[in-house]
Amino acid sequence: MLNSIRSKQIIAIGAVMLLIGFLFTRDIKGLVKPKGETTKGPAVRAGLKSEIPADIDLLQVSTAAKNSLGGNIATEITSLEQVYNSASESEKGFAAKALAKKWDSVDQDVPSALYLEILAGKERSITNWLAAGDRFVKAFDNTRDSVLQSALLQRANTSYKKALAIDSSSIDAKTGLGITIVDGMGMPMQGIAMLLDVVKKDPKNLKANMSLGTFAIKSGQFDKAITRFNEIIAIKPSPDAYFYLATAYENLSRNEEAIDAYGKSKNLAGNPTLSKFIDDKIIELKSKR
């Protein structure tokens, strides 16, 4: 019985990692040396709190990202950095915003998040702290270096706390904070309770529902995951929601339903690599009939 449960959990975690890799991972080239690269997924996220470094070196991160981009883009960013460095304190927020926007336009989430954090520190508003928190979470999701993940998650957690300090009733801030807790910044059930409270007040909150659904899969609660992802799909169908739904069905040996959900994920995603994986997965499931 125990081996069966463990086997299902391994399948679930593997599927989650594949989904992240196929649909959402945009490697931040140059930040992670190949020999230090770790596999990204739920297993990596466990115990992140104890690994948190004191800081992220903005200069090092920016230099590595510019080296990976090269050409005119790197030159443009260097020019914006010079403007930022020479700006007065009253102008630094504007210059940081310009840099965050430029980094975001080239899918470099880490430096973008750091400049949004600087902007929020200069121009304190719930909007700015939420933007910083959301970008740190995005960077966390798209980064494979577990030590860097730890720092990013901490910065996201802090950003959402500062947003809540401005407006304690903010659903977006509570959702973000709950997600960071579930992903490693505290006891998961504390984050789950927070997200459940968000969903109670805002049943169609996709971020909170997705986090609750993925946690259900990671913890082997596949029936709960199926209910959650069907609710998400009723709100807004997406390739990731269908993929997670298929994963939950597969782990309960509900293969026909898994095949259907995988197929819908494939059609919505339009991703050749994901399509190949799903085609192979469907062949495998059909062989078990």
Task: List the total number of helices.
Answer: 15
Distance between the termini: 23 Å
Task: State which percent range the strand residues make up.
Answer: under 5%
The CATH class of the largest domain is identified as Mainly Alpha
Count of discrete domains = 2
Structural class given helices, strands, pairing?
mainly alpha
Shape: globular
Order of helices and strands: HHHHHHHHHHHHHHH
Provide the gyration radius in Å: 20 Å
- Give the helix level as a range of percent: over 70%
Q: Name the average pLDDT.
A: 84
| Low-confidence region ranges | 2-6, 20-54
Annotation, overall tally of beta strands: 0
Question: So, the CATH homologous superfamily of the largest domain?
Answer: Tetratricopeptide repeat domain
By CATH, the architecture of the largest domain is named: Alpha Horseshoe
CATH fold category name of the largest domain: Serine Threonine Protein Phosphatase 5, Tetratricopeptide repeat
Write the layout of secondary structure elements.
Blueprint: H1 2-24, H2 42-45, H3 58-69, H4 71-86, H5 89-105, H6 109-122, H7 126-142, H8 146-166, H9 171-182, H10 188-201, H11 206-218, H12 222-235, H13 239-251, H14 255-269, H15 272-286
